[in-house]
Amino acid sequence: MLFGHLSKLFATILVLCGALFAQQIDSVKIAAIPDSIREKLKDENAVFSIEEARILRTAILGDSVIMEREKDTLVVPKDSLYGTHVNPLIVSAEVLGQNAIVWAWDYYVLDKDYAHTGPSYWKRNFREGWKWDHNHWAINFYGHPYQGSMYYAAARGSGYGFYSSLLFAALGSSTWEMFCETEYPAPNDLISTSIAGSMFGEALYRLSRAAYNKPGAPWYRQLAAFVLEPAGYVQRKAFGNRDFYTGWVPIELAIATGMGSRFGSVYRMGGKNSDEVDAEWNDRHGFLAVSLEYGKPYTKVKRPFDYFQAEFMSEGGFEGAVLQLDVMGKLINRGVHARGHWLDFSFNLDYDTFYGDLATVSTLSLGGSMDIALWLTPRTRFRVINQLYWIMLGSADMGYDDIIQEFNPDYHPDKDSYQYNSGVKYSLTLETLYKNKWKFFSKTTIDAMKTIEGTTPDYGVTGWDFLLLNKTALEYKLLNWMNIGYRLDTYVKMAAYSSDIAEPMSRRIHAYTLYLNFHLLGE
Questions:
Q1: For residue 241, what is the DSSP state?
Q2: % pLDDT > 90, the chain
Q3: Taking 70 as the threshold, does the pLDDT of residue 106 lie above it?
Q4: What is the DSSP annotation of 286-322?
């Protein structure tokens, strides 16, 4: 009896909801309402299901709290084979096939010396083992991660998760190192290709899926999805949608451009050059920065990289250039979020590269973060982020090429005079938003790295490397899609090596920039 009365009461409520929606629908023309529901609206006695009532309420009143929660859930349409996987033997064959194609191109088309490998080199690799290599820095820390992202994408597009796909990337990297070049297999390449490659691969996978997130996507979205991640896109076309559609995910994309001036110096301390300025520069520069945020900082991370950030910055002038790329993705998190406040603890992967005349440094790190945001007043929000990482693999240029060349005339540096490091990274970010118009932002990052024994190149030196980066900016919102800002960037590279010829040294640059920040996606 009780159940029957409740059923009648519930049906009555749905009828009243239907009547209410019917009164409002005349003044609101919304194409998203299905025809079947439109027909029901003509009948004042029609009974609406819970799903129909939700569709009407969302269409007329906007996104509800329920819909807000649903935005972070995956979407599994009828054409998706989500939950199934392409046979791992097939995926492994595809990964090895990528190696075969790249090797054949290097051997037959480019005629690269390193591609002239064979059984004698394979035997040597198994017999003598792995050795650190010092190929051009850009190849090792940009080229190898991108190569790894292709291995990763073949598995990710086949329905495998982050960690399973990482194993396929490791398969591709290890077999390349052992069989596809004359150089010794290098542990730094294996780490960079597998782990950093998986980070690149997952970020590109997410962006590709956001462009191609529903059946019948137009050609330009299909093209964007292919360009972002060709291997994963082809895999989905060949074997069906084994992965999930991303559904609706908030993505913020901003591009800043401007110009300014910078100055800096190089000091070498101790010995005959004590406290002398070895070099100075004073330069005008152009500035370009791209920042991308996928998800919200308080997003519940159900799968790795449900939230990630990618930032690219470049400064160029007559006296040299600076380029920085930083990718951070959350693996797991715990926290609370309510009414714009949040407290979030997360476990992250971070890949950071700094490439330029000041320094050539990279870090692949694993660590934790604490992110706190509070509305201090109805118009003022304050946010602070603390991040502490273990640097699994770092690299730093020596910066003593001129001195080494004095003692060893045969030494010819070419962006490969660096050694590998491990250490710690700490980052502190402060942000204040006032009246949704003014934004103050400051981020300071400190890398402290010690040379890994046995990783120095010819004539190398060992010891400690320190890199300090700070960017402080003040922005004002001119339009909803454009801010004007002024920023100060400070870069400091310090070295303290245990060598008679390499006395302690510091290099620094200060850059002042006036810029416009264009918000292309998101808030």
A1: B
A2: 55
A3: yes
A4: EEEEEEEEES-TT---SSTTSSEEEEEEEEEETTEEE
